[in-house]
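Bug report

Summary: structure tokens for ErfK/YbiS/YcfS/YnhG family protein differ between web form and batch submission.
Environment: batch mode, default settings.
Steps: 1) Submit the sequence below via batch. 2) Compare with the web form result.

Sequence submitted:
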Amino acid sequence: MIRLIVSPRRSMAVVLTIFLTACASNADRISGAAPRPSNERVEDREAAPIGTDPMLMYGEKTDAGFHIAGVNTGKMNPEFVRQVVSYATDEKPGTIIVDQRARFLYLIQPGNKAIRYAVGVGPVARAFDGGDAIIARKAAWPRWIPTPEMVARNPAHYGPNKDGVDGGPSNPMGARALYMHKDGRDTYYRVHGTNDPGSIGKAVSAGCIRLLNQDIIDLYNRVKPGARIVVQG
């Protein structure tokens, strides 16, 4: 159980849909405001980024032969910089908690601390039983395949990609993906990167949990398969 300072409505059914295409917003400012996270004690929050300099943390890089564009940190909301925060929870270190309302993802650390990442989310669209799952596997530069349901719902949009899209800078899943399973089965929900930095901090028209590519690489390197993930509405 999570010991909240201001309790969220945990009874709300939590959900994410996997896609992706409408995750693009064509915005280049990463500055959207989000509600204050309920678990954080603002007066105790550490403002220190995880790294020496945000410009270096979010600079351009080459990864597995693919180019990752740098993020203009001058246009970036300082709250969205990857950083350590105080976070009151009974979840064990290594657990991921996603606060969809606040649009932050927390990787729990010892001593009531967490590494906080800004995320883009989607609307609650269908129930995700219990709000928790496990990270069954991880993938670098993942391939994306639309589900049959997605193709049936919008064949004109998803049909051309029904056989899948190879990993790379044009793939909307970005540089890394964490695959959520529940009760031994794939939920088809993912935590992944994005090729649209402007979607971070926003609730866009399709559901997914997306991070900046620089942040999903950092999270990917820290999270172990089998880690618990809790998604709050």
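Above is the batch result. After comparison, the two runs are identical; trailing whitespace caused the diff. DSSP finds four helices and eleven strands in the chain. The longest strand covers residues 132-140.
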